[in-house]
Design goal:
The complex is a heterodimer. Chain A has 13 helices and twelve strands. Chain A has helices spanning 44-51, 98-108, 116-121, 137-153, 172-188, 237-249, 251-270, 280-297, 300-305, 310-317, 325-343, 349-371, 392-403, and strands at 4-15, 18-29, 33-36, 59-64, 67-71, 84-86, 111-112, 160-164, 191-195, 207-209, 214-216, 230-231. The longest helix of chain A has 23 residues, at 349-371. By secondary structure, chain B is mainly α. In chain B, helix 3 (75-106) crosses helix 4 (116-137). The longest helix of chain B has 42 residues, at 188-229. The relative contact order of chain B is 0.18. Classes of the chains: A alpha/beta, B mainly alpha. The interface between A and B is medium-sized, with 25 and 25 residues.
Amino acid sequence: MAEPVLELSNVTVRRGMGVVLRNFSLTVNAGECVVLYGENGVGKSTVIETAARLLPLEEGAVKHNGRLVYDAEGRSVNPVNPFGLTLQANCLVPSQTIQQQLDNVVAVCGKSCDFNSVLEQYNIGNRRNDKIAHLSGGQQRKVAVICGLIPGMVSHESRLILLDEPDSGLDDASVEVLIEQIHQLRNLGHGIVIASHDKRMRECATSLHNLSVVSQQEPKHSKSWEVSATEKSYPLLRTKIGWNLNLTTLVSVQRNWLAALLVMGCLLSIADPLGLSENKMILMGFTLAPAFTMGLVGDPVFKILMEQRSVDWWRAQSNTIPNSYLESIISGIIFTAIAMQIFIQSTDYRVILIGGFVTLITSFIVRFLQMSTVRLPRNNAVFIRLLTPVLILPWGLVVDYCASL
Amino acid sequence: MRERKGELFLIAGFTGLVTTLFLAFNWVPSVNINAFESPEAQRIFYWHVPAAWAAFISFSVLFAGSAMWLFKRNELGWKLHIAGSEAGLACGLIAVWSGCIWGAAEWGTPWDWQDYRLNSFALLTLLALFLVLGRRSQPDGVESRDTFATFGFYGFVLVPFTYLVTRIWVIRHPGPIIAGDDASSISLEMRLAFYVGVISFTLMVIGHIITSVQITRFEQRINRLQGIIDGE
């Protein structure tokens, strides 16, 4: 008997003020494809997002490949196997190229693989080195769909693939390619869940589910997908991805560095460091202010991932998402060294190192606060930064300590 | 009359607050001029400390309401969360603002970023401000309720910290006086005016909580009726 790749056991999920799923259960075995259909608001996307660990459960539990990934008691465990996920939002990083986006997904799967032929099938092979922001809406959707299929395309073992409205915005030829690939991946032994209004997608199903009635059907016979990926390990993957995102987008330069430069400029405009040479505490405050400011601006990678809900894709795959910790500490060190030269005209490696950690820890706390509101429907509108003044006191204590060195 | 209970508490509270002001400025004797830099400014004490006390009550209501929502999905819990955060914000702002005026007169500076008590109390007030503004920025739903209730629940840890911190570190803010070791140094008139202030602020907070719960109930009823009209 085929093993279940997904089990939703008596899950109850609320969205807004309503209960969307009540004691809902669904099991998807290896080699099965369940197509969810029904009118808007019936709960198709809620099933997909629940299976992807994105919505908190009021009751019940979710298992991937027989292992609990989260439940109503608050337990949340990273899935052992990466799974395919395409949400209604594309979850792409617009400043990356198609190649970089696919490379990240393949790296999460712990594989190495070339996707040229797949891109050609979707007629975007010639755009692989273009930034996603430069693609049309339909082309972006194709990339999002390929990202959702990749965990299945690179693995012989049973994987879970969740696709929410994958056909939305695709041309007819691409929908046919997608349907054929879903057949092939199912034949390889992957378990697939699709939410769709498009009747053509029902052709893929071994089970049709309208969230109350299930009907079985015999899918089209097709060959299996041929896996051509090789194993590859990616140590410190999320830090590396964060570093690459910073390098390719220079987002930390335009956000964190600029803020630090502005603060240094403002401080220089109101005070002459030579005239303050007696007051070591104030000079040390001036020295550590740029590092603190960069931290308060927040993690630049988090800002990038908030575009197109990319952060949700990462949250689904793992409890940790790409970060810019390495960049934070380096920026903090650089700007503290510069500020020290400007304001104190000397070099103390202990203070410079402390400056690096000030940026790192401040940035980490700001990111933690932002992450805690990521579930909100309008998370950009929430006033979470009102809580950041809590960091002024510890910063003041650090300044005090550094002045005593 | 039952529906007017909140308003009665509010009227009693406001009357008491005005009385406290009158007593503080016209009846209570001045403090020892050698013990204070600015003895007359000390009269702010009769509003400052009761406001902080009322803020602590509000934050306790916020904590209880948040816990009731998070663990029991209790509608009354959510209403108490809203009422507690609003009352906490109002009383917290009064305490911080009056403290700044007093601090400017007594210490020569309205604020000290290195004083634990000032910072932890300001953070509590900012937490309440975040909850009030944040809630208004979001559509009502379980996602926003869970998020804000989590902040209200864990933010309560600041209440005992804020209360106890001046017993451990006295940096600029003085330690406890009424409930502390120096209680005997306060005259009967001072105590009386202080207790009128405490009772008044407490009545005002109770009145606000009752009224806020009623308003939230009406809002939810209107939303339900709106949904029926919209055919949901």
